[in-house]
Each structure stands twice: as structure tokens, then as C-alpha cells.
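Researcher: Hi, I'm a grad student and pretty new to this. My advisor asked me to get structures for two proteins we've been looking at. I'm not sure of the right format, so I'll just paste the first sequence and hope you can take it from there.
Model: That works fine. Here's the first sequence with its C-alpha cells right after it:
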Amino acid sequence: MSILSANWHEFIKNLPMFGSLLAGAYFVLRLAIKHGFNAKLENHKNDLNTKLEIMKNEHQKLMFDFEAYNSRKHERYPELYKIV
């Protein structure tokens, strides 16, 4: 019984150290995972913003083309009526 009792006392004596090491490892791992997810999220946000800017430019170009077409169309109507 004395061997078991000595091991038990040694375990109880080292328990706070093991607990603090385990808690520290948990927090470091959690921080590393959180940092990885945040980095991926920032990359994804940057990709989406780039695509959004491309779509805005395309939309602006289409609107300009339509306005130019529409104004030219209305300039051609009087010429067409003169011919008819």
C-alpha cells in the first residue's frame, strides 16, 4: 500500500502543473485555429470584393452603352421620319 500511496500523493502534488499545461495548450491551439479561420475569411472577403468591383465596372459599362444607344436611337428617329 505504501507504493500506491506514494504515487497518489505525487500525482496530487503535480496535478496543478499538469492542469495549467493542459489549459495553456488548449488556449494556444484555440488561438491558432481562430487565426487560421480569420486569415481564410479575410482572403475570401478580398476575393468577393474583387469580384464585386469587376461586376460594378461591367454594370457601369453596360449602363453607359445603353445610354449611348438610347440617345443615338432618338437622334435617328427624325432622320427616319424625314425619309418616310
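Researcher: Oh nice, that was easy. Here's the second one.
Model: And its structure:
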Amino acid sequence: MGAYTEVWRDGSRLTLWMLYVITLLDADLFRMFGVHVLVSSAIRTYEEQKAIFLSRYVTAANVNGRRVYDTRIWNGIRWYRISSAGTVAVPGTSNHEIQGTKAAVDLRDTGRDAGITVATSARGRWIRQWCRDKGLLIASGDGFGEGWHFDVPGIFRIPPTTPAGSGGSASERENDMGTLDNTEENYQTFARWMQRAYFYDVRENGYGPKWELGRTVFELLRAADDSADVAKIGASVGEEIAKMNITLAGLGTVDLQIDTDKLAAELRAGLAPEIVKALGEKLAG
């Protein structure tokens, strides 16, 4: 393993670039879902990989009637996995050992379910879209049944002095008076809610390509208050639902490519700041 600056997160060894990428991911995941990224495993030395391998694999003479999950060839000898803990690459070949300028990380999140480790879950779909959009992680584990396994390319790159996004969203920045702009803060809550609703709360309605937003949308709108202003918001949402249904009917599949930032901006343009503030407070509560 070549020389590089080691940094640690959650007890796992990273390069500075890997830490930068995971920090960005963590910030975005938390803004979207209120959970954090945890690193279960990252860069390993050859000896660390060897120790893990030998804790799960034995030679034929040591199987002793135990269940064999898979086999590996190492140093010309066939080894048998007798541990249910999962498959492990032969020492010297693991993606967790630095391979050129790439290394792997195993990630999970602090949610109560499997979250980002399952490709079909809400957070799982979100992180994989994040990977495609950002180009900073590759969900390589999906190809061999390990949804927690991600590759990090370009691990020796130098992070920006000020990480992108480190200034936070507009809701986290201070105004000229040195205090948070509450209207903007509540708008950000509203925008995040809209994104979650549109991406992750779409459910099938009957047979064929008919779709509707799930109950969350309507429950939150009702919770905001039964007022003309909320009715106006509901009408705007309804128009967007109609547009989305037409798109989905044409595709016949669920492939939501909605510009949520543009949608949220359009909705915001039609709302007075005090309405945005009141709605955001209700949604945040």
C-alpha cells in the first residue's frame, strides 16, 4: 500500500478524498432523510484482509462437516467458506485493498431499517441516484449481492479547501444580522418535503399505468391548515400531479425524472413569504 495521508471515520481507514466524498454524501442524506451515513469498513491492509479471509475460510481438511457457502482459490489451494458472515475476496484482490486509484467502502445509515444498503428502498434508490448524479461513488456491490458495498474512484485526489456544500444550504447561512433567516429556513423544509414526496411517495393506483402521490402529500397539506392559501398550494401540487400522471401514462413505467428544484421554485414564486413560513413550520413539526 503506497504512502498517503490516513484519516479515520467510524473506525475505518480512508484517504482525504474518500472522507470528503462521504462527508458530502452524509450532508445530503441527512438533509433529505434525517439520517447519517456510517462507514462499516473501508481501506484494509493486506494483513487485515488476510485475517478476515482466514476467519471465514478453511482448507478442505478443516471443513469437518460444516456447511460450505462458497469456495476461493488462494495460493493454488481451494479454500471453503464455513462462515455465514459473507463472502470475502482473496487477500491481495479485494476492492477494500487499494487497487490503483480506487478503493471500496461499506456503508450503512442510522435509520431503523436497512436503508441505503437495499437498492429498492427509498434511501437505497436515493443514494444510487446520488452516485449517478455526482460520479463520486459507484454502487458496485449491487452486481454481487452486497448493497452496502461502494467503490470510490480517484481516492488520491485533493479535496477542495472548502468542500462543496460545506457552507450548507441557504437555511444554514447567516443573514447580515447574524441570525438565521427563518423564512428561508422554512422554505428549505418545504422544498425537501416536496422532493421526498415526488421521488419516494409515488404508489400504484389500480391496474395499468395509473399513478398517484401517496397519502403523505395530502396529510401534510391538510395538517398545514384549511385555508385559502393552503388550497392554493394544493391546486399547484394538483397541477403538477396531473402533469406527472400524463408523463407516466406515456412511459408506462415509474421512471421519475422530475426537476424538483424547478418545481419547488415555481411553487415558491406563487407563495407569499409568510405563507411559506407557516407551511414550513407545520411540515417541520
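Researcher: Is there anything I should tell my advisor about the second?
Model: You could mention this: The helical segments are 16-33, 46-56, 122-134, 182-200, 215-224, 228-251, 260-269, 273-284.
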